[in-house]
Design a protein that fits this description.
Number of domains: 2
Structural class: alpha+beta
Number of strands: 15
Helix content: 25-40%
Strand content: 25-35%
Shape: globular
Strand order of the largest sheet: 4-3-5-6-7-8-9-10
Number of helices: 8
């Protein structure tokens, strides 16, 4: 696998510019409901279409899987894209949303970038080369106590009306941590773990395009990425990402 970090970043930043064009003019952005609690906007579609064309032009050997358009071409080696992760936040004019792009080769995540255009924060990782934020190396926090930790989560399970949801788990964990955050973009949450801004993140009932890039970034920054039973790997339906130092304490509450 050989990709140019410069080309990769340029494509992701251009996608961010397209998204910001819509974000600055939200009154004229079309919004439809894919389901009673799941939105898609004109921006989602436009950003995904740009990424599909730009990535195919730069790297025609790889297939594409986007949240809105589905899978196309080679799915053994593919780009995995969430054009706007945090569409509800985007549609409300909030700043915490992101563009997530990952490259998967034969089932292994090898490159990933998460860009928050409204904040102008770009996270990037290449497998084995560490993780960066705006070009500077980042690493997970040094916090060793769950009681002193800040954690983040989300509630995709409620959006899907699932009986087995995150509420009881959240209550258990909230009682044992010093701070809890719910930002609304799983891709960004994973990057906040990578950057040491929060000490752990968990959620259930996500999709691979929500977490692929962020999971690689968190792992390259020194974090652990497992399911709720501690199995190493990216499991979107039950994902637990920590700084490694509070992993066992938090896993016990899963």
């Amino acid at each position: 696998m050989t990709i140019s970090v410069q080309v990769f970043e340029t494509i992701v930043r251009e996608a961010g510019s397209i998204a910001m064009g819509y974000f600055k003019n939200l009154n004229n952005v079309g919004v439809i409901k894919k389901s009673p609690r799941d939105l898609v906007t004109d921006a989602d579609v436009a950003v995904e279409e740009y990424l599909k064309q730009a990535l195919n032009k730069a790297y025609p050997e790889y297939g594409f899987w986007g949240e809105e358009g589905g899978q196309a071409d080679n799915q053994t080696n593919r780009w995995i894209v969430d054009p706007i992760d945090g569409t509800h936040s985007f549609a409300k004019g909030q700043y915490f949303w992101s563009i997530s792009v990952a490259l998967e080769i034969a089932g292994e995540l090898v490159a990933g970038s998460v860009y928050a255009p409204a904040l102008d924060d770009l996270y990037l990782a290449i497998k084995g080369q560490g993780a960066t934020k705006n070009g500077k190396a980042i690493s997970v926090s040094a916090e060793t106590s769950l009681a002193d930790s800040m954690v983040a989560t989300g509630f995709a399970c409620l959006r899907s009306y699932l009986v087995e949801n995150n509420l009881k788990r959240f209550c258990r964990i909230a009682e044992n941590t010093t701070g809890q955050r719910r930002f609304g973009s799983a891709a960004m949450d994973l990057c906040l773990v990578a950057d040491g801004q929060v000490d752990a993140f968990w959620e259930q009932e996500l999709n691979l395009y929500d977490v692929a890039a962020g999971a690689l970034i968190a792992k390259e920054a020194g974090g652990t990425v497992t399911d709720f039973k501690g199995n190493d790997g990216v499991y979107p339906k039950q994902i637990l990402v920590t700084n490694g130092k509070i992993f066992k304490e938090l896993l016990a509450l899963m």
